[in-house]
Amino acid sequence: MDTQMSRGAGSGFAGKILGIDYGEKRIGLSISDETLTFARELEILSPKEFWDRIKPIIEEHQVVQIVLGWPLNMSGQATEKTREVESFRNKLLKKLSARGGSASGRKVESETGLPVEITDERLSSQMAQTIIGGNKDLDSLAAQILLQNYLNKQKFKP
After folding, report:
1. Is residue 12 part of a domain?
2. Is the pTM of this model over 0.85?
3. Per the structure, how many domains does the chain have?
4. CB neighbours of 83 closer than 8 A, spacing ≥ 6?
5. Helix, strand, coil: what percent of the chain each, to 5?
């Protein structure tokens, strides 16, 4: 949400953005800093761990927005994986809507709990693989890359 991104350091805005790289077996998480400038790896969870821990993670890190990697093929078309992520997103929106109200004065959307934005994640896993030099534990690094790309794009929007 652009209004979220326009508030930065010194504005009295306190909150972070959670990045999610969804996978059937592992879900990579990343978190922004409070100035919405830098992203860092957070952790890798199994889907069961994710659903058990998402609300505590949101509270602990004062998350005000979620950015979910949106897998498209290289020509920008939706794939079967895109449909899986869409199903995951819908489940996440339902889970977050149970939060209701607002916590610590943060704006919480009345129907969805927190805003969940999607962002193109093409090549984030390949970039992570290049950085690490293999396939081990790429998920949180891929989440960091997609969140950092999102933050960069928001900073330079007119």
Report:
1. no
2. no
3. 1
4. none
5. 40, 25, 40
